[in-house]
TrEMBL record:
Transmembrane segments: none
Residue ranges, compositional bias (Acidic residues): 247-264
Coiled-coil boundaries: none
Xref: SUPFAM superfamilies: ACT-like
Name of one Pfam family that matches: ACT_6
Origin species: Galdieria sulphuraria (Red alga)
Name this polypeptide is given: ACT domain-containing protein
Organism superkingdom: Eukaryota
Domain spans labelled ACT: 172-254
Region (Disordered): 247-272
PROSITE patterns named in the record: ACT
InterPro entries the UniProt entry points to: ACT-like_dom_sf, ACT_dom, UPF0237/GcvR_regulator
């Protein structure tokens, strides 16, 4: 048998054995925003599928409801709102789980949070986002999940636009020494007078039996213009002398190893 006749024989045998399903359709296929009328040849079952991220979507001309949503069409879903939620109550195991479980059931999302045990109580403040006009749904869900807890929900304030000096820098402020009344007020008074913004602040007291007093610690992150650095240092030095505490003020330098020696001569901000 000649080679050409052999090839024709093989092609004929294969075509009789495999009969692909041929689907002819006028359905429009949207691929990355481009519409193409296509004729599909496939042995598989064809399904109309819409992908949420818009990679591929099939829409029938006879069924407009399956067509991709126009960019000019108004979204039917409610705009996502942010809410500040505060929770406080007697400490026990499982509080955070119960809290997160309640939010999950109403499709709410936790954006950021601060949680801590304070004495025998557990407290948290959380930024939550939800497609709702108010926080009633969040409040109701959390009251059911955390009976006996004090819960407050309010819409988050919009971030106020304020002038920030181009030479403003962030600093980490540490205070440690014998606990006494008025330390936090004295330190924050200095910061307020110099126009420093407190970004974060935490305090704690610890027993110091060998020293014979209760140890006070404060950690804070503050922001103020760099030219005011020496004035802030001088004012904080007076607080050190008055209360007998040690105060460190270190510039936050992004990307640098926190274990580097900040007292080096080349460091723009050292310790005092």
């Amino acid at each position: 048998m000649a080679l050409s006749q052999l090839c024709k024989h093989l092609v004929s045998s294969v075509s009789r054995t495999i009969r692909p399903t041929i689907i002819s359709t006028n359905r429009s296929f949207y691929l990355f925003g481009r519409c193409n009328n296509a004729t599909l040849v496939t042995p598989h079952t064809f399904r109309r599928t819409a992908f949420t991220h818009g990679a591929i979507a099939a829409a029938s001309e006879s069924d407009p409801s399956t067509a991709p949503i126009s960019r000019n069409r108004k979204a039917t879903s409610m705009e996502t709102q942010s809410f500040v939620v505060s929770v406080a109550g007697s400490d026990r195991v499982g509080i955070v789980h119960d809290f997160s479980w309640a939010l999950k059931n109403i499709s709410a999302n936790v954006e950021s949070s601060r949680m801590a045990c304070l004495g025998g109580d557990f407290a948290m403040i959380v930024l939550v986002s939800l497609n709702a006009k108010d926080g009633k749904l969040i409040q109701s869900a959390l009251e059911s999940a955390l009976p006996g807890f004090q819960i407050s929900t309010r819409r988050a304030s919009s971030v106020a636009e304020r002038h920030v000096s181009p030479d403003t820098r962030e600093y980490e402020l540490y205070v440690e020494g014998p606990d006494s009344e008025g330390i936090v007020e004295a330190v924050t008074a200095v910061l307020a007078k110099k126009g420093a913004n407190i970004v974060e602040l935490e305090t704690e007291t610890l027993p110091a039996p060998f020293a014979g007093f209760t140890l006070f610690r404060m950690g804070s992150r503050v922001a103020f213009p760099f030219p005011l650095y020496q004035e802030v240092v001088t004012a904080l030095s007076r607080v050190e002398e008055e209360f007998g505490v040690d105060i460190d003020l270190e510039e936050v330098v992004e990307g640098e190893d926190s274990e580097e020696d900040d007292d080096s001569p080349n460091s723009p901000v050292g310790r005092h």
